[in-house]
Specification:
Blueprint lengths: L9 H11 L10 H14 L2 H5 L2 H8 L17 H22 L3 H25 L10 H10 L5 E3 L8 H5 L14 E2 L9 H5 L5 E3 L3
Antiparallel strand pairs: 1-2, 1-3
Helix pairs in contact: 1-4, 2-7, 5-6, 5-7
The chain binds iron/sulfur cluster (2 copies).
Length: about 210
């Protein structure tokens, strides 16, 4: 089921950044948002990204009001970019953490800077393309996607008429209807957000655990 609090979680991100620049040591709590998507993935796929991530909530419910909602360019979904971003962000994070180690404020600031900069990148891409463009290649989302293949599949019934309303509703513009023949949509990037199941006029979509 969709998390009904998801539309409000962006306040956590805003409070985190506002307080973090005043009390940098609190930045270390962001480790939760780095590890949780990966920990959840083998069981529920990218459920964290679609239902519990404060930044995902910010993109959906704040940035989404201003985004032109154009198609997300395929470059941002490419394996090459995703591997590069994962390696790049992890390297930057590790080097900065090495030098900050032992100083709580400096360690917290590593998290705050990382989240601030990547959020700004996501905002720019949201204004250019679509509010969830960042989530197509977010390093933690990529790791979660790799770990989640097959987890909590979305069943596609033969009653699907291929209208594409599910793709319009999908934050990542995925295409569950393409899995009609197979009967189940198992794309590792599915955020398990339930938007497609809510809009399907044929009730052709449901998660396997329902
Ligand atoms: S909204 Fe439903 S009927 Fe339309 S393409 Fe998607 S699954 Fe098929
Ligand atoms: S396919 Fe459906 S459940 Fe998966 S991310 Fe898209 S809208 Fe959400």
């Amino acid at each position: 089921m969709r998390n009904r609090w998801q539309p409000y979680l962006f306040w956590i991100l805003l409070a985190f950044l506002a307080l973090g620049f005043i009390y940098p040591a609190i930045g270390v709590i962001a480790i939760i948002c780095m590890l949780a998507p990966v920990a959840v993935a083998p069981f529920k796929g990218r459920y964290w990204c679609g239902n519990l991530c404060p930044r995902g909530s910010f993109y959906d419910h704040v940035l989404g009001r201003f985004s032109p909602q154009r198609p997300i360019p395929s470059f941002f979904r490419s394996r090459g970019l995703r591997v590069f971003m994962l390696a790049f962000i992890m390297t930057v994070f590790s080097v900065q953490m090495y030098f900050a180690w032992g100083d709580p404020a400096a360690m917290g600031m590593v998290f705050i800077n990382l989240i601030f900069v990547t959020t700004v990148v996501g905002v720019i891409l949201g204004f250019l393309y679509h509010q969830r463009t960042w989530c197509a290649f977010c390093p933690m989302g990529t790791l979660a996607s790799w770990l989640s293949r097959g987890a909590r599949p979305l069943k596609v019934a033969p009653s699907c008429v291929g209208c594409g309303l599910c793709t319009k509703a999908c934050p990542l513009q995925l295409k569950p209807q393409d899995a009609k023949e197979a009967g189940a949509f198992t794309d590792g990037d599915c955020l398990k957000c339930d938007r497609c199941t809510a809009v399907c006029p044929k009730q052709a979509l449901r998660f396997a655990d329902r």
